[in-house]
Design a protein that fits this description.
Elements: E1 9-15, H1 21-32, E2 37-39, E3 48-55, H2 62-66, E4 70-78, E5 80-82, E6 91-94, H3 102-109, E7 114-118, E8 127-128, E9 131-132, H4 133-138, E10 148-161, E11 164-171, H5 177-188, E12 192-202, E13 205-206, E14 211-212, H6 213-217, H7 221-224, E15 229-230, H8 231-234
Parallel strand pairs: 1-14, 3-12
Antiparallel strand pairs: 1-3, 1-15, 2-3, 4-11, 4-12, 5-6, 7-10, 8-9, 10-11, 12-13
Length: 236
């Protein structure tokens, strides 16, 4: 019977805005002195929230854990369109914002629930011909992107103060919430982009149980063992 060590498992990390998901992996790899470290689902650099980090033999469970459904909370800014569909991108258009009500916004989001064919943004890590799209975008190259089938279980706004709306999205893996914001803005005729995004849940795991990166790197590896979800629990 295969045996597992105390570092064969997963850490729930609350990613801050700024670093990439791979940056967080590198930080944890160096801090724990482990060679095998990975993450289960990329968050954009500007996004925050739950990043599931797999360690040691648990890296073999990456695909299984990555396939879990996700929950996001975000802020959409209407009236401004950007090339990346988020606040980091260059502004491509501006327009007056109609006087929406919360009910009107949620009536519009209904068209984006269920099975949706979603086109990845040009500023994304999706590869075409082995080259990430964002590298092409940096050169001013725009290529046709193959739409992907995703499922949106729920997309609702919980608050709206013109020109910003706060929403919650429950979806399958691979969903671009910033694409939802962009497409909603196009549908409403005023444009929009995603200002902030936070992942709160991935499968059965919640950001409420996650550790912040700054706290993590101040703890000795031996103290982090208690925060590691064991391999056999993850594999169930």
């Amino acid at each position: 019977m295969e045996t597992f060590g105390e570092f064969d498992g997963a850490l729930l990390v609350d990613k801050p805005a700024g670093p990439t998901s791979h940056d967080i992996v590198d930080i944890i790899r160096a801090h724990l002195g482990l060679r095998k470290v990975g993450h289960c689902g990329t968050l954009d650099p500007g996004a925050t929230g739950l990043l599931l980090i797999v360690l040691g033999k648990a890296t073999r469970l990456s695909e299984k854990l990555m396939s879990d459904d996700k929950v996001y909370e975000g802020c959409v800014r209407f009236g401004i369109t950007t090339d990346s569909y988020d606040a980091k991108g260059a502004v491509t258009a501006t327009a007056p914002v109609p006087s929406f009500t919360l009910d009107q916004l949620n009536a519009a989001t209904a068209a984006f629930t269920g099975d949706v064919m979603q086109e990845p943004p040009m500023v994304s890590a999706v590869k075409q011909g082995g080259v990430p799209l964002y590298k092409l975008a940096r050169k001013g190259i725009v290529v046709e992107r193959k739409p992907r089938l995703v499922h949106i279980y729920n997309f609702r706004f919980t608050d709206y103060v013109e020109p910003q709306g706060w929403c919650r999205v429950v979806c399958t893996k691979g969903t671009y919430v910033r694409s939802l914001a962009h497409e909603l803005g196009q549908k409403l005729g005023c444009g929009a982009h995603l200002q902030h995004l936070r992942r709160t849940d991935s499968g059965k795991f919640s950001v409420a149980d996650a550790i912040e990166v700054e706290q993590l790197i101040q703890m000795p590896p031996s103290a982090l063992v208690a925060r590691i979800i064991p391999f056999l629990k993850l594999a169930r």
